[in-house]
């Protein structure tokens, strides 16, 4: 699949081939959904906690004697039926982590990238690292590429070499930067457009090709 390659001025400077095994793969919606659910579940902290009757404060003695008062027998004012009492079967800290084989994760990524390619929501750049560290420069780049809505700018390198890109994009609503090796189904589907420099495309091809 041939696609035009643009520079940071929005000018076409050539063409690049998108590997069909990645950007024209069969779309498996079930695996995409499973990968998305896994990612959302793994992001949960699982730190929710309620106190049981042995953890709440007070209730150290029997509120009244067992018999002769005409009232129901009670052993503690911190039993679950009392106001301020412990919670029965409340949430406790737990891990929501889900596992998924690497082949299925890669299949989900190929499916998501294929959907983006079919919808024309992928833009190739020759080199994004030359963008000056100014918000207006990144806005001008997106305008020159006719990018509307949210955009995910992929990079392939250390933070130091792409500091300008981070600074130029961080104040634009709906625009984020992401290292190519951290590409995931959630971000692919969440952003309207993927901006992929050629070095990031090479990194994606090395992993998924």
Largest sheet: 6 strands, mixed
Q: In the residues, how many domains can be counted?
A: 2
Question: Architecture of the largest domain in CATH?
Answer: 3-Layer(aba) Sandwich
Mean pLDDT, as a whole number? 93
Can you offer a commentary on this structure?
The structure is a single chain. The chain is an alpha/beta fold and 209 residues long. It has two domains: 2-27 and 100-208, 3-Layer(aba) Sandwich (Ribosomal Protein L4, Chain: A), CATH 3.40.1370; 45-95, no CATH class. Helices cover 33% and strands 14% of the residues. It is built from seven helices and six strands; from the N terminus they run E-E-H-H-H-E-H-E-H-E-H-E-H. Strands 2-1-3-6-4-5 form a six-stranded mixed sheet. The longest helix has 17 residues, at 102-118. The radius of gyration is 27 Å and the shape is elongated. The model has no long low-confidence stretch (mean pLDDT 93).
């Amino acid at each position: 699949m041939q696609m035009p390659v643009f520079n940071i001025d929005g000018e076409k400077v050539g063409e690049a081939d998108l590997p069909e095994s990645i950007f024209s793969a069969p779309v498996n919606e079930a695996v995409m959904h499973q990968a998305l659910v896994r990612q959302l579940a793994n992001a949960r902290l699982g730190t929710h906690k309620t106190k049981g009757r042995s953890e709440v404060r007070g209730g150290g003695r029997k509120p009244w004697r067992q018999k002769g008062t005409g009232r129901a027998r009670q052993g503690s004012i911190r039993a679950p039926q009392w106001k301020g009492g412990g919670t029965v079967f409340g949430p406790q800290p737990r891990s929501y982590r889900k596992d998924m084989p690497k082949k299925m994760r890669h299949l989900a990524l190929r499916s998501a990238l294929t959907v983006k390619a079919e919808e024309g929501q992928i833009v190739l750049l020759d080199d994004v690292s030359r963008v000056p560290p100014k918000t207006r420069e990144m806005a001008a780049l997106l305008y020159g590429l006719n990018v509307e809505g949210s955009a995910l700018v992929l990079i392939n390198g250390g933070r130091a070499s792409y500091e300008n890109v981070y600074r130029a994009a961080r104040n634009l609503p709906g625009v984020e930067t992401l290292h190519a090796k951290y590409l995931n189904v959630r971000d692919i589907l969440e952003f309207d457009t993927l901006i992929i420099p050629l070095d990031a495309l090479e990194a994606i091809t090395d992993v998924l090709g």
